[in-house]
């Protein structure tokens, strides 16, 4: 039976790499992103290569009404997902908390916590009714190890871990699995988004260390999602080789 996989934030980085891996597995994909037009050409190429149906939908996870509408349409047309990958998320700046812009604080909370919670809440009843499914939430080592200038982002990723654990408890009588994948230093457009397109500043985040790639994390997500029914991987932390904790990183000189 073809596996049905829904991925949020699928237009770049880990989301796009995850989509590529599940496309190669010939899964039926539902790819959700604010920049849906970026995905359309890629999705068409995957369909030509592998023959599987791929649906692209525009969605800003912060928009609760849009979430309800899009998820409802997906459930009606595709069905409840076998795998839901909640990947959409972002960070803004690295300022002391007292200097954070309130709009940035709200954007991180609305995307990383409320958006993830909204999408999951919209899909979960159909998954429970079907008594099957796997929710994979993208956390971060930032949710395990706080760092200066990242108070709000760290808090949102800690919340992802706790929400995942709570949902696992609430669905324990069903065949639904819940996993938190917590990457460390991954070189993706994440830092460019954080610094609002400042590529030079973003590049400094990855200087002097061999960072993880988006596909490294996508490979872990694929592995977690394809274990036998009896196996539930609850948490997975992946860090770069020269990373000991969230912000304990050994960097080499050029």
The radius of gyration over CA amounts to 18 Å
Which secondary-structure class do the elements indicate?
alpha/beta
List the domain count as a whole number.
1
Q: Can you tell me the CATH class?
A: Alpha Beta
Along the chain, the helix and strand elements come as: EHEHEHEHEHEEHHEHEEE
Rounded average pLDDT: 96
Strand content: 15-25%
Number of helices: 8
Side by side, the strands of the main sheet go 3-2-1-4-5-6-9
- The tally of beta strands, per DSSP, is 11
Determine the fraction of residues in helical runs and give it as a percent range.
40-55%
Determine the CATH topology. Rossmann fold
Termini distance? 51 Å
Structure overview:
This protein is α/β, with parallel strands linked by helices and 254 residues long. It has a single domain, classed as Rossmann fold, CATH 3.40.50. The chain is 45% helix and 19% strand. It has helices spanning 13-24, 36-50, 64-77, 102-130, 151-170, 190-194, 199-205, 214-225; strands spanning 4-8, 28-33, 54-58, 83-86, 133-138, 176-183, 186-187, 212-213, 235-238, 243-245, 248-249. The strands form three sheets. It has a seven-stranded parallel β-sheet with strand order 3-2-1-4-5-6-9, sandwiched between helices. The protein has a two-stranded parallel sheet with strand order 7-8. Helix 1 (13-24) runs parallel beside helix 2 (36-50). The longest helix has 29 residues, at 102-130. It starts with a strand and ends in a 5-residue tail after the last strand. The model has no long low-confidence stretch (mean pLDDT 96).
